[in-house]
Amino acid sequence: MIDKPKTFRHGVHPEEHKEQTEHQRLERLPVPDEVILPLSQHLGAPSKPIVSVGDKVYRGQMIATAQGFVSVPLHATVTGWVTAIENRHHPSGQLSESIVIASDPHSPQTLYNEAPIDWELLDKEDVLAMVQGGGFVGLGGAAFPTHVKLSIPPGKRVQYFFVNGCECEPYLTSDHRIMLEWADSIFLGIRVIHKLLGAEKTFIGVETNKWDAIKVLNDRIPPGLACELVPLVTKYPQGAEKMLITAVVKREIPSGKLPLDVQVLVQNVGTMAGLGDMFAYGQPLIERVVTVTGPGIRRPATILMPVGTKLGDILDYCGGLTDDARQILFGGPMMGTPQYNFEVPILKGSSGIVVFTEKDVRSRKEYACIRCATCLDACPVYLNPSQLGMLARVGRHEDMLELNLMDCIECGSCSYVCPSNIPLVQRFRVSKAMIREKQAREREAQQIEKEKTGSK
Ligand code: SF4
Ligand code: SF4
Predict the structure, then answer these.
(1) What gap in Å lies between CA 102 and CA 36, rounded to an integer?
(2) How far apart are CA 191 and CA 313, in angstroms?
(3) Global pTM value
(4) CB-ligand 1 contact for 375 (6 Å cutoff)
(5) How far apart, in whole angstroms, are the C-alpha atoms of residue 248 and residue 349?
(6) Residue 284, pLDDT above cutoff 70
(7) What is the pLDDT of residues 250-277, one digit of tens each?
(8) Is 440 in the pocket of ligand 1 (CB under 6 A)?
(9) 239 neighbors 164 (Cβ within 8 angstroms)
(10) DSSP per residue over 405-440, as a string?
């Protein structure tokens, strides 16, 4: 039986705009002529190349290794030849060392080392080693290495495993289509991870604007798996980990703590599908589903494509941009980042490309804060965005820490509701970056001081 929809307090209701792609089946992009694979596309240390320019590489072959525990390897996403290892444009806006592969037009593009796996024989260490070896990161956007999240420190336990199928960002429909079309892969991933964690129960949280997916998954729960589908009210940011946990099991994560501190662990539904394919036949993370949509694209679609596919190639496949297209975002309109170069590649964590037209992005004049408190009512983590915004505007970044700036999940709900058009979340991102930079400089200075004292 499916319960009545649950939710969290606060949040916002932006228009969904999912109709362009939500009912279209997944498509597979033809193999691109070239892919660009940045060594840094996950949180943690970048991977380290183990191939050279001129090498022939095969789809699924490891081409860069993990550097340490908080890092993952990188695999060739097409069969072809390495043509360069050099700095290329990264979706973050910076240049980043990347492996460039020209695809072999005569290759059948079959998977390197494909082999059936008997996952029931794997022990915990095998599973964790496979997850890291497969280059897995969270596919919901944060790109945190999956094996790190699944490595439970001594003294901690996971009572509930959560699979996040909320996809609360407007326009995006990748997770929706994955849930409708790849239920078997999702449940294989869940069975392996549920067993690894020793969880009492797995919850799959899905917003009620995806009832078809709720029904499909509910009908396919494997016998014997303690798993429940939880419908959630369609509200932004329902897919944020803290909001999902609060809505389903009514546990609040204290400031500065993690879901594990309330005995919960969350993974994205797309990550589960990817892991399912790895535990079925050994496929590492070499491709992902991306929603390409928005009023500025001629043929919106949800597409399975190799990681490293260039933005320009994807737009061409979708019929190109409309004449009035003005802004391209990687990610959704609430948390996405604008792109300025058609050569940037899709990363492991890129879930969508949204193109807006002139009329959607007309710049809005900023006015002074009128202290209406609308942003306080919207903030899902109970911050005071108005006060934080005033401090950010005058550069008092350190003072913002006392107002718990670091708890801000950068959801953008405050900016969305602000009648004065104050770019609150953008300012909070800058403040956080400045604080982190200062802290890093201080750590470095302390280290140098320590080394000097030690060498005397
Ligand atoms: S919503 Fe905007 S105008 Fe209203 S209090 Fe917040 S920052 Fe000020
Ligand atoms: S302050 Fe941060 S968490 Fe709160 S609404 Fe704004 S962006 Fe979201």
Answers:
(1) 9
(2) 36
(3) 0.94
(4) yes
(5) 25
(6) yes
(7) 999 998 899 999 999 999 999 999 999 9
(8) no
(9) yes
(10) GGG-----HHHHH-TT---HHHHHHHHHHHHHHHHH
Strands 74-75 and 62-65: what pairing?
antiparallel
Substitution candidate for ligand 2 out of 414, 417, 427 with most atoms within 8 A of CB: 414
State whether the Cα torsion 101-107-108-111 is positive or negative: negative
Mean pLDDT of 76-88: 98
Report in angstroms the alpha-carbon separations of 114 from 28, 197, 270, 283, 310: 20, 26, 21, 7, 26
How many Cβ atoms sit within 10 Å of the Cβ of residue 122? Answer: 17
SS3 29: coil
Give the span between the Cα atoms of 347 and 336, in whole angstroms. 13
SS3 205: strand
Of 266, 280, 415, nearest to 334 (Cα)? 415
Tell whether ligand 1 has an atom less than 6 A from the beta carbon of residue 373: yes
Sign of the torsion formed by the C-alpha atoms of 239, 241, 243 and 249? positive
Domains of the chain: 1-23+113-362 (3.40.50.11540), 374-439 (no CATH)
How many helices (H) and strands (E) the chain has is answered by 14, 17
